[in-house]
Amino acid sequence: MKSLCGNSKQLFLLSRKRIVITIDGPAASGKSTAARLLAKKLGYLYLDTGTMYRALTWKALRDKVDIKNPKALSDLARNTRIFLKPESDLNIRIYLDGKDVTSSIRSPEVNNYVSLVSAAGGLREVMVAQQREIANRGSLIAEGRDMGTVVFPEADVKIFLQASFQERTKRRWKENKEKGLSITREEVETELANRDRIDSQRKISPLKRAKGALVIDNRHIDIPQTVEKMWEIVTKKMKC
């Protein structure tokens, strides 16, 4: 039988086994864009868990839920429907209880509270169950902060994406500027530093490199080059 390794995408598409690839890393490391592009290249589902937590944070703030009350947050998660709708331009539209909140969840206020909300144990249990259910629909790229450590510890391929704090600050500031958000570079630095601290020090599902995860430091390379490195890791792991 002719080997399919000459056409890696064909191999992945024809495989009967549901394949899970996890991409973890800190804020502004380029996870979302790179993961979307890799998912498109492979023809896989794309799971952006960060947007799910952002959507819940937005709802908690809107409904004035006490974000320091774990039970209130877990109840909120159980009574919330989140739907991620892929679009042809690689963007994802986020619907919360039927409402399009794609733009709303990127506000500075949500940025300030999303790490606190996502650290709530009961809420994370609800979200992890939902994320694992999505994996039952087919092979996917799962992107977040605890994909390889907690949600999919048996993933076929694990990648940890990182960049220097200075580079991530520059990226996030540029991103906010392009969106027309009025925020200084100093404010971005403070926001990222707080998120890094909360994400890495929280008791439940802290951000860390998963066992067996391969590291890509993309501080000096762009997104297409990052995706190419991911592609090389995936094809090598799948023995092509």
Automatic annotation (TrEMBL):
Subcellular location: Cytoplasm
A Gene Ontology molecular function term of the record: CMP kinase activity
InterPro entries assigned: Cytidylate_kin, Cytidylate_kinase_dom, P-loop_NTPase
EC number(s) per entry: 2.7.4.25
Catalytic activity annotation: dCMP + ATP = dCDP + ADP; CMP + ATP = CDP + ADP
This protein's record includes keyword Phosphoprotein: no
CDD domains, A to Z: CMPK
Keyword annotations: ATP-binding, Cytoplasm, Kinase, Nucleotide-binding, Transferase
One cellular component (GO) term of this entry: cytosol
Domain (Cytidylate kinase): residue spans on this chain: 21-235
Record: residues binding ATP: G25, P26, A27, A28, S29, G30, K31, S32, T33
One GO process term, biological-process aspect: pyrimidine nucleotide metabolic process
PANTHER family (alphabetical): CYTIDYLATE KINASE, CYTIDYLATE KINASE/PANTOATE-BETA-ALANINE LIGASE
Family indicated by similarity: Belongs to the cytidylate kinase family. Type 1 subfamily.
Full protein name: Cytidylate kinase
Organism: Aerophobetes bacterium
The encoding gene: cmk
